[in-house]
Design brief:
This is UDP-glucose 6-dehydrogenase. By secondary structure, the chain is of the alpha/beta class. The protein is 40% helix and 14% strand. The mean pLDDT is 96.
C-alpha cells in the first residue's frame, strides 16, 4: 500500500520504518527539515534499538520524508502521529493534532481527487475517547470535505514500548481497529496483512468502535501503571518488615491471574506514556464528574517513590557538600528519553540537600545536560563512583549489574538501589528500595 504518516517522533518514525520493512511505500510529513533530511539520508532522528538499521535500509527508498502535505494525495491512508502534550491540569493539548487534521483536509480539498475511494485518516496518537469523532473529523471537514464521501476516520492505537518499539510493532500482542465504516476496517486489515502473514495469522485483531479503540489504549497503559504502583506499594510494606519484595513478586507472578510482568518494584514509572496517559484519563473522567480514586492513588504513590529512595541515603550519609553519584538518567533502559524520568526528582532532591552531584547514563547524558547543565556528568559509571560518598541507581541498565571493584574507589561505599541492579556484597553498605 501507499500510506503517509504525519509526525516523525518516536511513534511516527518507528511505525513508518516498520511498515516500510513490511513492504509498504511510506512517506512521513514533518515540519522539521532536519528530521526530513535525516530520514531521506537513511538516518534515524531518534534513538531506538533496531530503528537505525530499518531507516538505513529503507530511508530514501520505500521510506521517504517531506514537509509537503500534498504528498498524502498519492496515498490511500494517512496516520496522525503528532504530539499530545499535557496541559497544566493533566488534560491533553490537541493543538498539534487539530492543526495536522486541518492540514490534511486542506491538502485533500486543494486538488481534484480522482480516487474512487475516500481517503482514510487514522488517529495513531493517544487521545481520549471521542477526540477523533468530535475534534479531528470536524477539522478535516472544515476544508469543505464530506465525511464518508471524501474521507473516513479511524483509530488504530499503538502499543509500543520505548526500548523495544520495533520488536513490539513487528510482534504485537494485538491489533486494535476502531472504525465506523466497513471500508475503513478493510483498509486497516489490508495494511496489517503482511504483519499477520509473517506471524502466521497469530495476531488477535480487535475490531471495535472509534471511541472504544481510543479508550483501550488508556485502559492498557493505566492498568500497567497501576500494577507497577501496586507492586511498589507492596514493596514498600515488604521493606518495613525486612521482607524481600522480589521473592514475593516471583511467587505471586506464578498466579496466572496476576502474571509475572510489571512486578519489578522500585523507584517508579516515567516516560512519555504512563504519566501523560494516566493524568489525561483522570482529567477526562473528572470533567465527566467521576473521580477515579485508584488511578489517582497510583499517581500519588509513584510520585512518592523517589523521595523514599532519597530517605534511604539520608539514613547513611549527610549528602550536603558530598559527591553523590546518580547512575541512570533515562526513564528506562534502552532509550535516551528523559521525559518524566525518576532521575529528575532524585537530582532535584539531592540539589535541595546540597549534594555535589555527578551523573552517568550510557545514552541519555546529553539530553539531561540540556536540563541540568550545572551538574557534573561522567563518561562511565566507574568515573562517577570514584571518590563518591554515596550512589543511587535510578535506571536499570545491565552494565550497572557488572559493577564490583568500582565500589572500592568510593570515599564511602553507600549504594541505594532503586532498580535491583547491584549485587549485594561485603564491603559496601547496600540498601534496596523495596528489599
Amino acid at each position: 500500500m501507499n500510506l503517509s504518516i504525519v509526525g516523525s517522533g518516536y511513534v511516527g518514525t518507528t511505525v513508518a520504518a516498520c511498515l516500510a520493512d513490511l513492504g509498504h511505500e511510506v512517506v512521513t510529513i514533518d515540519i522539521d527539515e532536519d528530521i526530513v533530511d535525516a530520514i531521506n539520508n537513511g538516518e534515524s532522528p531518534i534513538h531506538e534499538p533496531g530503528l537505525d538499521e530499518l531507516v538505513a535500509e529503507h530511508g530514501g527508498g520505500r521510506l521517504r520524508a517531506s514537509t509537503d502535505y500534498e504528498e498524502i494525495l498519492d496515498t490511500e491512508l494517512t496516520m496522525l502521529a503528532l504530539p499530545t502534550p499535557s496541559n497544566d491540569d493533566g488534560s491533553i493539548d490537541l493543538q498539534f493534532m487539530e492543526a495536522g487534521a486541518a492540514s490534511i483536509g486542506e491538502a485533500l480539498a486543494g486538488t481534484e481527487n480522482a480516487a474512487a475511494d475516500p481517503h482514510l485518516v487514522v488517529t495513531k496518537s493517544t487521545v481520549v475517547p471521542n477526540t477523533t469523532e468530535d475534534r479531528l473529523a470536524p477539522r478535516i471537514a472544515d476544508a469543505g470535505l464530506e465525511r464518508g464521501a471524501d474521507f473516513l476516520v479511524a483509530s488504530n492505537p499503538e502499543f509500543q514500548r520505548e526500548g523495544t518499539a520495533v520488536a513490539d510493532f513487528l510482534n504485537p500482542d494485538k491489533l486494535v481497529f476502531g472504525t465506523d465504516d466497513d471500508r475503513a476496517t478493510a483498509l486497516l486489515n489490508d495494511l496489517y496483512a503482511p504483519l499477520r502473514e509473517a506471524a502466521d495469522g497469530d495476531v488477535p485483531v480487535v475490531e471495535t468502535g472509534i471511541a472504544e479503540a481510543e479508550m483501550i489504549k488508556y485502559a492498557n497503559n493505566t492498568f500497567l501503571a497501576t500494577k507497577v504502583s501496586l507492586i511498589n506499594d507492596i514493596g514498600n510494606i515488604c521493606k518495613e518488615f525486612g521482607v524481600d519484595a522480589y521473592e514475593v513478586a516471583d511467587a505471586i507472578g506464578l498466579d496466572d491471574r496476576i502474571g509475572e510482568q510489571f512486578l519489578r518494584s522500585g523507584v517508579g514509572w516515567g516516560g512519555s506514556c504512563f504519566p501523560k496517559d494516566t493524568d489525561a484519563i483522570i482529567a477526562a473522567a473528572q470533567e465527566q464528574g467521576y473521580d477515579p480514586a485508584v488511578l489517582s492513588a497510583a499517581v500519588e504513590l509513584n510520585d512518592a517513590q523517589p523521595e523514599r529512595l532519597l530517605s534511604l541515603i539520608d539514613d547513611h550519609v549527610d549528602v550536603s557538600g558530598k559527591r553523590i553519584a546518580v547512575l541512570g538518567l533515562a526513564f528506562k533502559p534502552g532509550t535516551d528519553d528523559i521525559r518524566n524520568t525518576r532521575a529528575v526528582p532524585v537530582i532535584e532532591g539531592l540539589q535541595e540537600r546540597g549534594a555535589d552531584i555527578v551523573a552517568y547514563d550510557p545514552v541519555a547524558t546529553e539530553n539531561m545536560r540540556e536540563r541540568y547543565p550545572d551538574i557534573e556528568y561522567a563518561d562511565s559509571a566507574a568515573i562517577a563512583l570514584e571518590g563518591a560518598s554515596g550512589a543511587v541507581v535510578v535506571t536499570g541498565w545491565d552494565e550497572f549489574g557488572a559493577l564490583d571493584a568500582e565500589f572500592d574507589e568510593m570515599a564511602a561505599p553507600v549504594v541505594v538501589d532503586g532498580r535491583r541492579s547491584i549485587k549485594r556484597r561485603d564491603g559496601i553498605t547496600y540498601e534496596g528500595l523495596t528489599w
